[in-house]
TrEMBL record:
GO molecular function: ATP binding; ATP hydrolysis activity; RNA binding; RNA helicase activity
Top-level taxon of origin: Eukaryota
Upper taxonomic lineage: Eukaryota, Fungi, Dikarya, Ascomycota, Saccharomycotina
InterPro entries: DEAD/DEAH_box_helicase_dom, DEAD_box_RNA_helicase, Helicase_ATP-bd, Helicase_C-like, P-loop_NTPase, RNA_helicase_DEAD_Q_motif
Record region (Disordered): 417-436
Protein name: ATP-dependent RNA helicase DBP8
Domain DEAD-box RNA helicase Q: residue ranges: 7-35
Species name: Naumovozyma dairenensis (strain ATCC 10597 / BCRC 20456 / CBS 421 / NBRC 0211 / NRRL Y-12639)
Domain Helicase ATP-binding: 38-214
PROSITE patterns per UniProt: HELICASE_ATP_BIND_1 (PS51192), HELICASE_CTER (PS51194), Q_MOTIF (PS51195)
Entry similarity comment: Belongs to the DEAD box helicase family. DDX49/DBP8 subfamily.
GO CC field: cytosol; small-subunit processome
Length: 436
């Protein structure tokens, strides 16, 4: 569906103050998903919206929520759940910016920040709560009725990146969060995702209750077009496992990519830290984003990367979803993900809004079946990249990269890197078992 030229945020039904606020932010033309979903949400329908990142999903749900809120601005009005802290912060920024003329109160409830300060914020009955399920569940179970009691009167629940939230890893915390909200027929539930999975579709088939209109589902283009834009070039490099760092350095410094902004995706936080330090020793402007980092450091890394103070971001999949980083020209899958949909989310960091971009995957012997599954999912064969050649890697990079990696590992061992996080994870697992 393409939006007609006459369509405006005013004609979609948003409040005057809100379309003026959007206009001040130079957002004047609704995207396809906004045109489709905003009127239906305003009619009171539950909604499933499927569209790739960068297509304006946040305004598609924030617009109608803010419009309804401004008609009756009381208490806790809406809860937005999202899988990562960074995404929660980005959504909260948009809500705050849109509602700035209306004294909107937005609370961010995520891990890595003061539980006490969050509890005080929640006691003040913010209008909108943007949260990760684990931390909100913690408050629901531990912070008392005067802190979270207001959740019982919320009018909206949004699951952003719903395909990720509706997996087993979030199931317990998500159930706790939803259990503190009004029953389904007394609130609107909005699911937004780049990938409409079977779990997401279960809401679509839920029967209508108490005269509430049926669920509205809207998907931009077919899934495979959503998955991989035509402007994205997908390539692979066959790499021996023990020299991956040298290949990475050669790729980042080759003629084609020496000035490109790049995100390197890895599967483990430890790998991210080793690569960050190694590249830093090799004079690459680098930042990292992974779960072992304190929240403030994660926020600083994102700011540095967005401001181009760092040209390379090494990240685990906390950065694969939804983050609005418009400048990425190259995505490198240093480790191949086990789930083909994760590849789609990673690749979605580049080639956005009609721009071109490259996604290059490092393939070791163990990765062949994973690559085949990805190719089947995206309905496209990857081409072999010609950017790095074995002899060049061995001649130019191997010795100095090996030295930089060795220095990084020694420094991490000296700092006992990761030990505190391992202990914390064990504690979390123990307390989870205790709760169950």
């Amino acid at each position: 569906m393409s939006t007609s030229k006459q369509e405006t945020f005013k004609s979609l039904g948003l409040s005057k103050w809100l379309y003026e606020s959007l206009s001040a932010m130079k957002i004047t033309q609704p995207t396809a998903i906004q045109s489709a979903c905003i009127p239906e949400i305003l009619k009171g329908r539950d909604c499933i919206g499927g569209a790739k990142t960068g297509s304006g999903k946040t305004i598609a749900f924030a617009g109608p929520m803010l419009t309804k809120w401004s008609e009756d601005p009381c208490g806790m009005f809406g809860v937005v759940l999202t899988p990562t802290r960074e995404l929660a912060m980005q959504i909260a920024e948009q809500f705050t910016a849109l509602g700035s003329s209306m004294n909107i109160r937005v609370a961010i409830v995520v891990g890595g920040q003061s539980i006490v300060e969050q509890a005080i914020q929640l006691q003040n009955k913010p209008h909108f709560i943007i949260a990760t399920p684990g931390r909100l569940a913690h408050h629901i179970m531990n912070s008392g009725e005067d802190t979270v009691g207001g959740l019982k009167r919320t009018k909206f629940l949004v699951l952003d990146e719903a395909d990720s939230l509706l997996t087993d890893s979030f199931a317990g915390d998500l159930a706790t969060c939803i259990g503190a909200l009004p029953p389904k027929h007394k609130r609107q539930t909005l699911l937004f995702t780049a990938t409409i999975t079977d779990q997401v579709r279960t809401l679509e088939n839920a029967p209508a209750q108490d005269g509430k209109p049926s669920v509205f589902t809207y998907q931009v283009e077919s899934v495979d077009k959503v998955a991989i834009p035509s402007t994205l070039k997908t390539e692979y490099i066959l790499v021996p496992e023990h020299v991956k760092e040298a290949y990475l350095y050669q790729l980042l410094t080759c003629e084609t990519y020496k000035d490109s902004s790049a995100i390197i995706f890895v599967n483990r936080a430890m790998t991210a830290e080793v690569l960050r330090r190694t590249l830093y020793h090799l004079d690459v402007r680098v930042a990292s984003l992974h779960s072992y980092m304190p929240q403030q450091e994660r926020t600083n890394s994102l700011h540095r990367f967005r401001a181009n103070a760092a040209r390379v971001l090494v990240a685990t999949d906390v950065a694969a979803r939804g983050l609005d980083i418009p400048i990425v020209e190259l995505v490198i899958n240093y480790d191949i993900p086990s789930d083909p949909d994760t590849f789609i989310h990673r690749a979605g960091r580049t080639a956005r809004a009609g721009r071109s971009g490259d996604a290059i995957s490092f393939v070791t012997q163990r990765d062949v079946s994973r690559i085949e599954a990805i190719e089947e999912r995206i309905n496209k064969k990857m081409d072999e990249s010609d950017k790095v050649h074995d002899t060049a890697v061995i001649r130019k990079a191997l010795t100095k990269v090996t030295k930089a990696k060795r220095e990084s590992l020694m420094a991490m061992e000296k700092e006992n890197f990761g030990e505190r996080q391992r202990i914390q994870r064990q504690k979390n697992m123990a307390s989870k078992r205790h709760r169950e």
